[in-house]
């Protein structure tokens, strides 16, 4: 597991109060919403705010494919990495 993915898993757990889950429990390719981790739209907003605060990135809800970027830890890590290098 790369460092950014581990950080993101920890951020998801801490920012959403998922006390009974550890980073190792979250598969990097598992869906974060719906059938996967079971997050909802409120969780998406909280996670977006936590990402902006932690990494200093801008998340515009109008961004094309935003839902796709938040689909899994692997995709979220790629999105954050791309935003940080801009």
From TrEMBL:
<protein>
    <submittedName>
        <fullName>Acyl carrier protein</fullName>
    </submittedName>
</protein>
<dbReference type="InterPro" id="IPR036736">
    <property type="entry name" value="ACP-like_sf"/>
</dbReference>
<feature type="domain" description="Carrier">
    <location>
        <begin position="2"/>
        <end position="84"/>
    </location>
</feature>
<dbReference type="Pfam" id="PF00550">
    <property type="entry name" value="PP-binding"/>
</dbReference>
<dbReference type="InterPro" id="IPR009081">
    <property type="entry name" value="PP-bd_ACP"/>
</dbReference>
């Amino acid at each position: 597991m790369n460092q950014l993915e581990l950080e993101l898993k920890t951020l998801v757990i801490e920012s959403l109060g998922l006390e009974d889950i550890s980073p190792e429990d979250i598969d990097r390719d598992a869906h974060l919403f719906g059938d996967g981790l079971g997050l909802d739209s409120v969780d998406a907003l909280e996670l977006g705010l936590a990402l902006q605060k932690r990494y200093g990135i801008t998340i515009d809800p109008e961004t094309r494919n935003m839902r796709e970027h938040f689909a899994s830890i692997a995709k979220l890590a790629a999105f954050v990495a791309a935003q940080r290098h801009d």
